[in-house]
Amino acid sequence: MRKLCVINKRKHDLLVRLIHELMSNQVVIHGKYAGFHILLESTQGLTEKEMIERAKEYGVLVYPVSIFWHDVHCYSNNMVLLSFGYVSEKQLTKGIEQLSKAWNTI
């Protein structure tokens, strides 16, 4: 159990570091310490649907957040869920590099 905790902490820290290094002008991270996923909020004017579609074009799966929102009218429609529990460190690195390209609107 301890080994799994160490591995997941290392993956989490890698993910957060890569996002800060490669995407700090594209997204805001929410829920950094909330399990095996984080929320990414676009600062580039992309909608949830655009984020999902662009990520898919680059071979990365991200998930909608809107389906979990109790009051959809309060949802900003610019966030996605990114899971890292079943992803290797190598896949994380490649995925964030691809997301950076996919969501670059500048």
Give a brief rundown of this model.
With 106 residues, the chain is α+β, with helices and mostly antiparallel strands. Helices cover 43% and strands 16% of the residues.
Largest sheet: 4 strands, antiparallel
Helix content: 40-55%
Give the H and E element order: HEEHEEH
Low-confidence stretches: none
Q: What shape does the CA trace take?
A: globular
Instruction: Tell me the distance between the termini.
Output: 43 Å
Q: What count of structural domains?
A: 1
CATH homologous group name: Aspartate Aminotransferase, domain 1
Tell me the name of the CATH class. Answer: Alpha Beta
Average pLDDT confidence is 90
For the record, the CATH architecture stands as Alpha-Beta Complex
Radius of gyration: 14 Å
Give me the secondary-structure category: alpha+beta
Give, in spatial order, the strands making up the sheet with the most strands: 1-2-4-3
The CATH topology comes to: Aspartate Aminotransferase, domain 1
The number of helical runs is 3
E-strand count: 4
Short key terms for the protein model shown above:
globular; 16% strand; 4 strands; 106 residues; Aspartate Aminotransferase, domain 1; 3 helices; alpha+beta
